[in-house]
What we know:
Shape: globular
CATH class of the largest domain: Alpha Beta
Strand content: 5-15%
Number of helices: 18
Distance between the termini: 14 Å
Number of domains: 2
CATH architecture of the largest domain: 3-Layer(aba) Sandwich
CATH topology of the largest domain: Rossmann fold
Strand order of the largest sheet: 2-1-3-4-5-6
Radius of gyration: 22 Å
Structural class: alpha/beta
Helix content: 40-55%
Largest sheet: 6 strands, parallel
Low-confidence stretches: 59-63
Mean pLDDT: 91
Amino acid sequence: MRIIVDDLLSANLHTPIGPTGTLRRLMANRDYFSARGIDFQVFTYDIVRPGGMEAAGNPPKRRFGRIKALLRGLIQGNRWLTVLYLLRERRCVQHFVRAYLALGRRGDILVFHEEYTAYEYLRQAGFLGRDRAGQPQIVLFQHSDGTKWTMELASFPKLRNTWLYRRMDREMDLVYHRAVRLVFIARVGLENFNHENPDIPRERLVFFHNGIENLPLAGCSESSGVKYDLVCTGTVNSRKGQTLILEALGRLREEQRREFHLTIVGDGPAMEACRELTRCYGMEELVTFRGRVANREMHGELQRHGIFILMSSNEGLPISIIEAMRAGLPVITTNLAGMPEQVETGRNGVLIACKVEALADLLGRMEEYDWEAMGRESRRRFEREFTFSQMLQQYCAMLEGVAKSESV
């Protein structure tokens, strides 16, 4: 008997976030699912609603990116603006779920990547009651370190102690208890969640690393002419730590700075702050703002550089680090969340505290490490642990396990 699986994400399919990349890879491998008896479909905002998020009232980011960055600062500093902003986001999720339900799908398993989307599905489908007969099985992916509220409050610190915070907390708990599987992309996420939620059976918690396509190395990479050619990719925001990197470079002595070049790939609300710091420290010649790079070009872009750096204050298991490992780059990153599962100090990079002082100290003693050897180990580690083929097999095995357990 075939298993019908719908994977839902309330975002446009090409939004530059980790889950959308994974969904695109899964969609490209539907034949593999079919061979294992799984009818697999992906549903994102732009698939179920023509026009995507913009049709629901979200302005196109390219047109209003600068305005949105200014508004985000105001929102983060005001509890009422925070609540209004999140209510607007929740309304978009409601539109998405309503459009999905209108398709009349009858999936055996529904996979979600956000708690509220799962909750809204249960509410609109009339499945909040105790009687679960005829309901699809719910699988919820956790793209965080497994600690409740950490990522949300990092983005919206004024949300705490509001009525919406309390309501969202109840919704999260309900979804956690209704999900037959909670899937974590980092081992530490599973352990943190299990510690915080001992009442949820351990057998419902599943862990496997994310993975990406195994692309070959190009061979000879371009040289920027500096000793340490750093590159950072991802959304440019406070959580990803691009401003922290610039602060650390700014603290180096003039002669030390000349050994470095930093390329920031991506865009986001902290871009203007990054440019201002660059001007403030007089580092215009040492920093390149590359802007957005298409996914298909990222592998080549990374190979033009020597060392990958990501100073995030909160993560799950960053795809950007996996991309850097695939490109054969050593990695400098923070010693938190899933990063220690990707990087081992002295083997394929260096883990440090998420502090300007810690990074400035490391940048001042780079000669202590063999960066080329660590880059080679990064590539080997990627091939051992982080390829998409491995992740795909584990994803399918998880779905088959759900179907088997529910048929007993």
